[in-house]
Design goal:
The chain is an alpha/beta fold. It has helices at residues 2-7, 17-23, 33-40, 61-65, 79-90, 102-111, 129-142, 174-195, 215-218, 230-233, 252-278, 301-314, 320-332, 387-390, 392-406; strands at residues 70-74, 94-99, 119-123, 150-153, 201-205, 281-285, 341-345, 355-360, 366-371, 380-383. Strand 4, helix 8 and strand 5 form a beta-alpha-beta unit. The longest helix has 27 residues, at 252-278.
Length: 410
């Protein structure tokens, strides 16, 4: 329990007194929403734009791509995204690597053994809706006549120790803007290109932390809770630090969990609205706990040292390589052609590993490892979304408020 409590710690130092007052529930009925929004969203310092220069379009992509099938992956320069990129390239795909730093992508691709003829790096800053629009325009200039076979929305930020919110260029809290809204707009803009492809699939990476029917989602506080999504409804311009409500105090860990819950809600709502009309398969997955991923770079060093050991001890650990292969499997394996599914492996992450199995490591060694909690090994299966994720009213609200947020960029 101490370990779970430690995982859920967040820093709230520096919050204005009224924000603390609101967070404790002491909100006067005479305090207007506008006043709450003004205080909650008050910036501590001016923030520079993250997207300031449009990338020069790449052209003549048809010559480079040839007849290969085409996949777009966000966050392709590290962790799960890089491993999935390599897995797809190894399967003969051409990958458009959507990344913030194209030079970094080229460097890590070379280090990872990804041929420069198997991918192209294009700039995408998910913290800017204008950047998302420019990225899609650049894809169309690069490959004007080709459909997109698969779209993988993988990139994410996780800021659990931040005492105050960071904001996107459009004034949305960073986790909400990058993890959810940037990807939501990307799917909307690429949907016509996916529709033109036979067997197209769109996968938005989920998380057990956004699913309240798992150990990490239910017992590791704070718990994802979207409520009526009044914070998302409030719009940009720093109107709300949390997606659920402008009156909720900022909590970086919950902001991340809420954003991942929205990712999975989006998958189901797009499945309901688009699958039968377009044939596009919408899915999500939990690839297992990649305990050494850069997603935890904001965590303290002691956490980054002990977390992989703990995850292995309970059977939840999976290597970046295996997780990347799992993500690639969801978009290319014939058995994953069903839409509206949350894919998982080796147990449902609702219990600690109860059995020990022999698992082959990346260096070829065979070791005994706890299994059954979503970690290494095992077969793919259809997992269950939690009640909040499958709630159709929540899906409609999330879709409508998100469309309102991105409408100027469609």
């Amino acid at each position: 329990m101490l370990f779970l409590q430690t995982l859920s710690l967040t820093l709230l130092v520096g919050a204005p007194p009224l924000v603390q007052h609101i967070a404790k529930g002491h909100v006067s009925k005479h305090l207007t929403r506008a006043a709450i929004r003004a205080v909650v969203a008050e910036p501590l310092a001016p923030q520079t734009k993250r997207y300031t220069k449009k990338e020069v379009p790449k052209v003549a992509g048809g010559i480079k791509v040839g007849t290969r099938r085409l996949a777009v992956i966000t966050g392709a320069s590290s962790g799960l995204g890089l491993s999935a990129t390599k897995a797809l390239c190894d399967q003969g795909y051409f990958v458009i690597a959507a990344v913030r730093d194209t030079a970094k992508m080229d460097a890590v691709a070379q280090e990872s053994g990804i041929s420069k003829n198997s991918y192209v790096a294009m700039k995408l800053e998910l913290a800017s809706l204008q950047s998302v629009k420019d990225f899609v325009l650049n894809i169309k200039l690069f490959l004007p006549a080709r459909p997109i076979n698969h779209l993988i929305c993988n990139a994410a930020v996780y800021l659990p120790t931040d005492p105050t919110p960071s904001w996107t260029d459009d004034g949305y809290e960073m986790s909400l803007g990058v993890n959810h809204l940037g990807h939501f707009l990307l799917v909307q803009l690429l949907l016509p290109e996916l529709k033109r492809a036979r067997g197209a699939r769109c996968c938005i990476v989920g998380s057990v932390t956004g699913n309240s029917n798992t150990i990490a989602g239910q017992f590791v506080k704070p718990v994802a809770k979207l409520s009526n999504l009044e914070g998302l409804r409030a719009g940009g311009n720093k109107a709300s630090a949390m997606a659920s409500s402008p009156a909720e105090r900022f909590d970086g860990a919950k902001a991340y969990k809420d954003s991942k819950a929205l990712n999975m809600v989006t998958v189901l709502e797009m499945h309901r609205r688009y699958h039968n009309k377009t044939g596009v398969v919408f899915s999500s997955l939990y690839p297992g706990c990649i305990a050494e991923t850069n997603l935890f770079r904001e965590k303290r060093q002691w956490f980054r040292d002990i977390f992989p050991v703990f995850m292995k001890s309970i059977g939840a650990y999976v290597s970046e390589k295996e997780a990347g292969e799992r993500l690639a499997q969801v978009v290319i394996d014939p058995q994953c052609s069903k839409s509206g599914v949350y894919w998982s492996w080796n147990g449902n992450a609702r219990q600690f590993g109860l059995t020990t199995s022999k698992v082959k490591t990346e260096d070829g060694k065979v070791v005994n490892q706890k299994t059954g909690a979503g970690g290494a090994g095992g077969q793919i299966f259809e997992n269950d979304f939690s009640g909040m994720i499958i709630d159709e009213r929540t899906g409609r609200l999330a879709f409508d408020y998100s469309m309102d947020a991105v409408k100027d960029f469609l």
